[in-house]
Amino acid sequence: MNIKRFTLPGIFLLIACLNATAQRAKHPFASDAPIREPKIFAEGVISTEDIDDYFSFTPDGRTIYFTKHSASFATGTIVVSHFRNGRWTEPEIAPFSGTYRDKEPFISPDGRRLFFSSNRPVDGSTPKRDMDIWFVDKTATGWSEPRHLDAPVNTDSYDWHASVTADGTLYFISDRKAERRFNNIYRARLVDGKYTSVEMLPDAINSDTQDMHVWVSADEKIMIFVSAGRADGFGEDDLYISYNRNGEWSQAKNLGPKINTRFYEYSARISPDGKYLFYCHGFADPKLPDGKFNHRELMKILRSARNGHSNIYQIDLSAAGIEP
User: Fold this and answer.
1) What whole-number distance in Å separates Cα of residue 114 and Cα of residue 106?
2) Which of 23, 106, 152, 195 is the Cys-Cys partner for 188 at CB 3.0 to 4.6 Å?
3) Spatial contact of 92 and 306, defined as CB atoms under 8 Å apart
4) CA atoms of 38 and 165, how far apart (whole Å)
5) What's the pLDDT tens digit per position in 174-191?
6) Does residue 71 have a pLDDT over 90?
């Protein structure tokens, strides 16, 4: 090799190229500085003055699907944003959403399937009174037409908020009347490409209150979910965590006051790179400045992601007290 060929400008160009490659390899939500306190994610684009919640990243972290709700939660629409040219794009309505009440997108660990909840009709043209779990598959041009999961997953009750592991095991929420509780976490194993039976998780997870918004890691080692009204809770809805120990879920543990407040925390998940906790927080927790403020300052807050509506937050996994 002729070392003389490497001029100083050439070396600088090589370093710049290597740095650019490293930046592209990083997930767009990665932070060089530690995030030790909860921080609003993508403020002004993803997290706005609207109710922005129930989200899922693609495996490369460069696309996020999330839900926009009306103030009354009577409607819900799934939207999508992409990270391009160093920023998140303005969200657009997902191609499979926009007609019915759709929410809670979940992208499978391989990125090839997206589950969501919807009240769209299964037969006929009248929307359902409850919610069912649907899915779309990745195609060469986008997503397939939505398909309905059959019984025993979907019933005539609310069946919603799916989470799927790498082997296809489905975790979800249901208020099916066969059980004594209102909302519980269920599991269905994928056998020969079908879900043929469901089981309610044991009391280490489910309680006599509402247990909802389940997320399970791709390797089925970590579960994060919401529970409302437990004795050790800090607010309305709190986030709890459980670890899979030798095939059994450990007793659920409250994530503590750094994450949980007297308001609502829900729909959490660990980022695709395994470094951050993302979750939703809000409902009447406006970030008002200390001391007296004027009308212009008030309106600026009310027309921003700090107005107390629900938004997406991010924090380092270690700061959240979660074992990787």
Assistant:
1) 5
2) 195
3) no
4) 26
5) 998 756 678 999 999 999
6) no
87-99 confidence digits (pLDDT tens): 999 999 999 999 9
Q: How far is Cα 198 from Cα 207, in angstroms, rounded to an integer?
A: 18
User: CA-CA-CA-CA torsion for 5, 9, 12, 13, nearest 10 degrees?
Assistant: -80
Beta-bridge partners for 132 = 118
Which residue matches tokens 């790498």? 166
**Residue 189 counted as domain residue:** yes
Cα(244)–Cα(267) distance, rounded to whole angstroms? Answer: 19
Judge whether 111 lies within some domain.
yes
Range of the domain at 118: 45-316
Residue 22: strand, helix, or coil: helix
CA 244 to CA 237: how far, in whole Å?
A: 23
Place of tokens 């007297």: 262
Kindly state the average pLDDT of the residues 287-292.
76
CATH of the domain at 209: 2.120.10.30
| pLDDT of the residue at 291 | 78
Q: How far is CA 273 from the centre of its chain?
A: 14
Above 60 in pLDDT, residue 34? yes
Number of separate domains in the chain: 1
